[in-house]
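Lab notebook page, bench 4
Experiment: in silico fold of construct C2
Operator: M.H.
Input chain length: 142 residues
Purpose: comparison with the prior construct
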Amino acid sequence: MRRIPPLLLLAAAGCAQPAAFEPPVFATLDAVFTLGVGDQATIIDAPFQLRFLSVPADYRCPTDVECVWAGDARVRLQVIGTRTMGPGADGDAVELHTDLEPRAATIDGFRVSLERLTPAPHSETQIATRDYVAELRVSRIP
């Protein structure tokens, strides 16, 4: 059996396909910014970062169906680097809704609100987790 020199193994490992790299998201106060599932945003002038963890429930009315109610989806966010969290928070995570309350949470004197969740559902297709995009806004509470 022929041995492969360790240096050659290291060189071959360096040729492997690099993992997909998402550029960091930087958000300014009062501006809407978007996060895909797994993405994290640094909020400029706020003492925390936000990571979009998941959509635990999506009961929004499909776009190709007439509904009596628009429905609701729930988004789970991880709050990183916070000291105090207000109503709507559970430890280092917060869940916000598209149509029901809470649509916003208070974190360290800032209001984090879910502005929109895309894509809109369709009756004949299921939305893949990786396709969800949350539009969020962080504002200082006066």
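Observations: Confidence is low (pLDDT under 50) at residues 6-19. The radius of gyration is 20 Å.
Next step: discuss at group meeting.
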